[in-house]
Design goal:
elongated; alpha+beta; 3 helices; 178 residues; Nucleoside Triphosphate Pyrophosphohydrolase
Length: 178
């Protein structure tokens, strides 16, 4: 069987600063018609800043949709046409104050393909130099350093639940941390 959905119509429901919402009318492989609500998002660069002594630099911040504070790896939205690696370097500096001698793409992630087209470009940042953070206006962040082993335990304990952070830390521990 060939898997596809032919788009018959697109209705833009909402245009926002971070995402747009569309409803697509589609024809399914069996000829039936269905509706799909789709979030359009420019994607983001995600950074796993790993120090020479094996600590991961993360940020702690309040996330309004979940009404709680999260511990996450730094990340930021791509600007239109922006190279994800350029975005990664910028966001690392803005959110943590660190600069990386080396940024290597380690993973591409689609966090919610059932309803969103967002793509996360995940980079491992090494050769870190500490500097001054300059978060965006309205962004309140605390920078924290955790040994990678402790961050992995925090995933097991349910203290880190952000999907991009979980995936990137597990991938780093399994494949990148030698």
């Amino acid at each position: 069987m060939e898997f596809y959905e032919k788009t018959l119509n697109i209705e833009t429901i909402y245009k926002g600063r971070i995402f747009d919402l569309e409803t697509h009318t589609v024809e399914l492989p069996d000829g039936k018609i269905a509706a799909r609500d789709i979030i359009r998002n420019p994607g983001a660069a995600v950074i796993v800043p790993l120090t020479d002594n094996g600590e991961v630099i993360m940020v702690e911040q309040f996330r309004k949709p979940c009404e709680k504070t999260f511990i996450e790896v730094p990340a930021g939205k791509l600007e239109a046409g922006e190279d994800p690696q350029v975005c990664a370097a910028r966001e690392l500096k803005e959110e943590t104050g660190y600069s990386a001698e080396k940024l290597v793409k380690i993973l591409t992630l689609n966090p919610a393909p059932a309803f969103a087209d967002e793509v996360l470009h995940i980079y491992l940042a090494t050769g870190l130099t500490k500097g001054e953070a300059s978060p965006d206006e309205g962004e309140f962040i605390a920078v924290r350093a955790y040994p990678l082993s402790e961050a992995l335990n925090m995933i097991k304990e349910g203290k880190i639940t952000d999907s991009k952070t979980v995936a990137s830390l597990l991938f780093t521990a399994q494949f990148c941390n030698k």
